From TrEMBL:
Positions of transmembrane segments: 40-59, 65-82, 89-108, 114-143, 155-175, 207-230, 242-258, 264-283, 295-314
UniProt keyword list: Membrane, Transmembrane, Transmembrane helix
The organism of origin for this protein: Epilithonimonas ginsengisoli
Name of protein: DUF2723 domain-containing protein
One Pfam family cited in the UniProt record for this chain: TMEM260-like
InterPro entries to which the protein is assigned, alphabetical: TMEM260-like
Keyword Transmembrane helix applies: yes
C-alpha cells in the first residue's frame, strides 16, 4: 500500500485501516520513498512503544530503575526485537496497546474516570489497528466492573466510546461495500476452525510451543513472573489481580491455539502485561535476596548472547540442520533463532531469484508481484535487490 500510495477505507481484517493510513500519511509528509518510509515508520513506533511502556512501569512501580529494567527486558525479547526490523503491523499495534495499558494503570492509581475513558477510547481505536485486540475486551470488562462496583466510578461514557468505535468498524465496512463478516474474522476456516480441531495432542503441542516462545523471549525472567502469576491466582479476591491475569491469559491463550504459522507475533499483547509480572517478581527477589536480584538484573545484557548460544547449539543437531534446509527460503535456522535481521534472504529476494512459491495464491506471492510491477518503473531488478 505504501508503494501504491493509496489511502484505504477498508476496515476489515485485510485493510489494516489505521496502519495503512498512518503509514501513507507519514510517507507523504516526510516526502520519502516507500522503502525507507516503511522502515522508519516501523522503527519510530517500536521506540514509541518502549517509551510508553517505560512510563507505564514507572507509574506502576514508582522506581525509574525498575522501569528501565522492564523496558530493556521487553526490548530484548525475541518477538518485539524481530518485529522492530520486519515491516509488519505488530509493533505499530503494540504502541496502541502500550498506551491502553498506561492509561489503565493511571486509572487504577488515581481512580479518575477521565483515565478510564481515555483507556477505553484507545482500546476501541486499537481495533482499527488489528482485530486481535478484541482479546483484551474480557479484561476491559472486568476493569469497568470493578470501576463501578468497587471505585464507584461512572463507566457509561467509557462503555459508550468503546462500543462506538467497535460499531464504527462494521458501519464503515458496510457503507464502503466491504464484507462485514470480515470485520472481526478473516473468512479463512483453516485459521479459525482449525484452531479448535487439533485434538488433545495438538493442543498439548500448542501449549509446549507457547511455553517455549515465552522462555525464548524472557529466559530466566520467566521464573519470577510465574511465581507472581501463581500468587495472583491465589489472591483473586483482589479485583486488580483478576484484571491483570485475564488481560494476560486471554490473548496468551488465543495466540497459543491460533492456527497460523507465524502465531508467535500474536503473543505481543500478552507480553506487555507479562512484563509487569516480571518486575513484580524481581521486587520480591530484591527484598528477600538482594544479591540474586542484582545478578538477575544485570543478566538482561546477556540476552543477545543467549540467542547466539541457542543458535550454535541447535545448529549442531541433526534436527536443526534439517530445519535449516527446509526453511532456506527464509534464511534458514538463523531467521528463526536470531531476532536481528542481517543478510536474510527475505520473501522478495526469494521471488527475484525465480524460485517457485509454495502457493501461487498466497498473499505474500501476490503482494510481491504487485510491488515488483510498480517498482520496475523506478529501479532495475539489481537495484531492487540491494534495497
Amino acid at each position: 500500500m505504501a508503494e501504491l500510495n493509496e489511502y484505504t477505507n477498508n476496515t476489515t481484517v485485510f485493510g489494516k485501516f489505521l496502519y495503512t493510513n498512518f503509514l501513507i500519511g507519514f510517507k507523504t509528509v516526510m516526502g520519502l520513498d516507500s522503502i525507507p518510509a516503511t522502515r522508519f515508520f516501523n522503527l519510530i513506533f517500536s521506540v514509541l512503544t518502549l517509551v510508553v511502556l517505560f512510563f507505564g512501569l514507572k507509574l506502576k512501580f514508582k522506581k525509574e530503575l525498575l522501569a528501565y529494567l522492564g523496558t530493556l527486558i521487553f526490548a530484548f525479547s525475541f518477538t518485539f526485537w524481530k518485529q522492530t526490523e520486519i515491516i509488519e503491523v505488530y509493533t505499530f499495534n503494540s504502541f496502541w496497546i502500550a498506551l491502553y495499558v498506561y492509561f489503565t494503570i493511571r486509572f487504577l492509581e488515581d481512580r479518575n474516570s477521565r483515565f478510564l475513558f481515555v483507556s477505553s477510547l484507545i482500546l476501541g481505536l486499537s481495533l482499527f489497528a488489528h482485530v486481535q485486540n478484541i482479546m483484551l475486551i474480557p479484561g476491559w470488562v472486568i476493569l469497568c466492573y470493578i470501576s463501578f462496583r468497587n471505585y464507584k466510578v461512572k463507566i457509561l461514557p467509557s462503555v459508550f466510546v468503546f462500543f462506538a468505535f467497535a460499531f464504527a468498524l462494521y458501519f464503515m465496512a458496510y457503507i464502503n461495500g466491504y464484507e462485514t463478516s470480515h470485520v472481526f474474522g478473516s473468512g479463512n476456516s483453516d485459521w479459525v476452525t482449525g484452531s479448535f480441531e487439533k485434538g488433545i495432542s495438538g493442543f498439548s503441542k500448542d501449549i509446549l510451543v507457547a511455553i517455549g516462545y515465552l522462555i525464548y523471549n524472557f529466559w530466566i525472567f520467566v521464573i519470577p513472573a510465574i511465581i507472581v502469576i501463581y500468587k495472583k491466582i491465589k489472591g483473586l479476591r483482589d479485583s486488580q489481580n483478576l484484571f491483570y491475569l485475564v488481560s494476560f491469559i486471554v490473548p496468551f491463550g488465543f495466540a497459543t491455539i491460533y492456527n497460523v504459522s507465524d502465531s508467535y507475533v500474536f503473543f505481543l499483547n500478552a507480553y506487555l502485561f507479562f512484563i509487569s509480572f516480571i518486575i513484580e517478581g524481581l521486587i520480591d527477589i530484591k527484598i528477600s535476596h538482594p544479591k540474586i536480584y542484582k545478578t538477575i538484573s544485570f543478566s538482561v545484557f546477556c540476552v543477545p548472547l543467549f540467542y547466539l548460544l541457542s543458535y550454535l547449539i541447535i545448529s549442531k543437531t541433526p534436527q536443526g540442520q534439517n530445519f535449516d534446509k527446509e526453511k532456506s527460503q527464509k534464511g534458514g535456522l538463523s531467521y528463526y533463532l536470531f531476532p536481528w535481521m542481517r543478510n536474510n534472504v527475505g520473501v522478495l529476494e526469494f521471488y527475484l531469484d525465480g524460485k517457485k512459491p509454495f502457493d501461487d495464491k498466497d498473499f505474500m506471492n501476490i503482494n510481491c508481484h504487485i510491488f515488483l510491477k510498480h517498482r520496475k518503473g523506478k529501479n532495475s531488478l539489481e537495484e531492487i535487490r540491494k534495497m
